[in-house]
Each structure stands twice: as structure tokens, then as C-alpha cells.
Amino acid sequence: MSTETKSSQKTKKVETKKTTKVLIALDYDVSALKVAEIGYGMAKAMKAEITIMHVVTDPVFYGSKEYSPILGFGGHLDMGQIELESDKGLRDASKHFLDKVKRHLKDTKIKTLVKEGAYAEVILLAAKEMDADIIVIGSHSRKWLQNIVLGSVSEQVLHHTLVPVFIVPTRKT
């Protein structure tokens, strides 16, 4: 047997881990649809299981009658009688928002998840609980790079996980 044949037999096959679970975290900004669409396209290309989530946090963000942050894309949620003043109402409205995104993406297999707490902490915990292979999150700052360096939710997620993070810049140009 030649030396070349022996060395090729000793070469170990390097296996790459297949991405099977993608967590797409959607915030209260109207750019959530862009994040959802890009994350969804990437996850579908990888044939991965998709979970979209929204974190209910500071109730002040949800209190304005003129602008409700969970309206997401299009500015209208058609929530009917959902009460935004209560914790249950906020969870219900968030669930409704995620269901609307799911319908927009035309994929009934998408899982939805509504959690409460601090954005970054909850996203990290959800990714760990579901054993996510990648986290997709938006960054809608005008100073995207500055926020990454100084302390946005995206930065906190990026620096406190071993899971790859795909950040979708959503700033308005």
C-alpha cells in the first residue's frame, strides 16, 4: 500500500452540524416583518424548524393609544377586544401579532412563543430551552455598530451565547 493511500485512510471525515432549529426574536418595532422574512428565508433554506418569539417587557411601550408597538407591520393588528392594560392582554396581543406574522409567512409549521421579562435574558433562555442552533434578531438603531459595541439587546445576545446570532439591520435609510 502506498504512503498516499495510508494517509487518506487515516484522514477523519469532518462533519458539520446541521442547523435544525432557528429562533427568530421579533421586537415591538414596525421593522419586525423584515426580520421575520429574512430569518424565515434563511431557516427554510436550511430546512430548519422555526420558532418566532416576542418578549413582553416594559408595559409603558404598549400603553400609547396612538402607537402600539406590537402592531408590527402595516400598523394594524385588528385586535378587537384585547386589553393592553393587563399582563394577560399584552400576552394575548403578542400572541395575536405572532400569529399574524405566521399567516403572512404562509407556514403553519412555524411555532410561536411569547415570554415576559428583559429582552436579552429571555431570548437567551428561550434559545437554550429549545436548543436553538441560530438566533435571528433585528437591530434598528441608526448607529448600529455603536449599539453593537456599547450595549443593545443584539449585543447582549451576541456576547452571552455560544449559539450563532444573525443580526438583521433594519434601520431606515
Describe what you observe in this structure:
Helices cover 39% and strands 18% of the residues. The radius of gyration is 19 Å and the shape is globular. The protein is α/β, with parallel strands linked by helices and 173 residues long. The N and C termini lie far apart (64 Å). β2, α3 (87-105) and β3 form a beta-alpha-beta unit. The model is unreliable at 65-77 (pLDDT under 50). The protein has a single domain (17-169), classed as HUPs (Rossmann fold). The protein has helices at 3-10, 32-45, 87-105, 119-130, 144-150, 153-159; strands at residues 21-26, 49-56, 111-116, 134-139, 165-169. A five-stranded parallel beta sheet has the order 3-2-1-4-5, sandwiched between helices. The protein has six helices and five strands; from the N terminus they run αβαβαβαβααβ.
Keywords:
Rossmann fold; 5-stranded parallel sheet; single chain; 5 strands; alpha/beta; 173 residues
**Tally of individual domains:** 1
Q: Could you give the order of strands across the largest sheet?
A: 3-2-1-4-5
- Give the overall pLDDT as a whole number: 78
The CATH superfamily is HUPs
List the total number of helices.
Answer: 6
At a glance:
The protein is an alpha/beta fold.
Question: Helices, strands, pairings?
Answer:
Layout: H1 3-10, E1 21-26, H2 32-45, E2 49-56, H3 87-105, E3 111-116, H4 119-130, E4 134-139, H5 144-150, H6 153-159, E5 165-169
